[in-house]
Known about the structure:
With 341 residues, the chain is an alpha+beta fold. 33% of the residues lie in helices and 23% in strands.
Amino acid sequence: MDYKNAGVDIEAGYKSVELIKKHVQSTMRPEVLTNLGGFSGAFSMKAFQKMENPTLVSGTDGVGTKLKLAFLMDKHDTVGIDCVAMCVNDIACAGGEPLFFLDYIACGKNYPEKIEAIVSGVAEGCRQAGAALIGGETAEMPGFYPQDEYDLAGFAVGVVDEKDIITGKDLKKGDMLIGLASSGVHSNGFSLIRKIFDVDKKVLDTYEPRLLGTIGETLLTPTRIYVSALKKIREAGVRIKACSHITGGGFYENVPRMLPEGICAVIKKDSYQVPEIFKILAEKGNVDEAMMYNTFNMGIGMVLALDPADADAAKKAAEEAGVAAFVIGEATAGEKGVTLC
């Protein structure tokens, strides 16, 4: 008896590392001090010493049950983008610049080419975020995960000058709310989606004219990474007073997290075009409107609050970064929370 007979293929692990090296290398930043294969990743903070008070910000998350669609479609090169996005968007939401990322892949069986595909997506997400992929772990766990399935999670660290942290404390009545468009469903609500569509390979391969593509292609579209757009907005001289990443819990749970006491966010539902996928989900699943806005991003992946005088500059900067932006509402006096009208 040996480890391979027990279900863990060490040689496959070595091959996986060799295959992912080129993807990892493509994410490197000059601050990275270690090479792939070490016991830890080292990252120099020297470049940030000119900040008045450099402050680390972090985020961790996974892809969730969206992975079930990747299994059915046998498409594994985009979920890594989702994993990075869910972490770095939270960091950017606080005003931070993502610095480095680590991933964790747990699988029933190590198929090196599949691991490479997953990590290629992680690397692409890191490139979009400007973060270095400085480490990770692939754990082969036979008997714990089915042979063809895996889980994917990640952890990111960023930096921001303490004076520039976005806290929402200065948000006041009359401030404008700007919505940044999502790329689709992103990585939340898939437990409900899988119930609505009763997902299988046949359903995912079905062409839907309203989506101009198959259901699977639309649902597997990776989460948008907002790091560049938020950076562009700041570089345009706009002060972002508050920021909310619209993830699990939709508008009702996430928007209030950026609000101080005594401020209500009033959002106009007709201020932008809700993508067709959300309309289809509501129709097919008979999901009421309140539940839709309490589960999904409904086409808005990030909500920013800023002075009304900065609205045009913020929209222009976001659009220069390739992200559509809309004035979707305003902050009013009232009980802390969100009102959709």
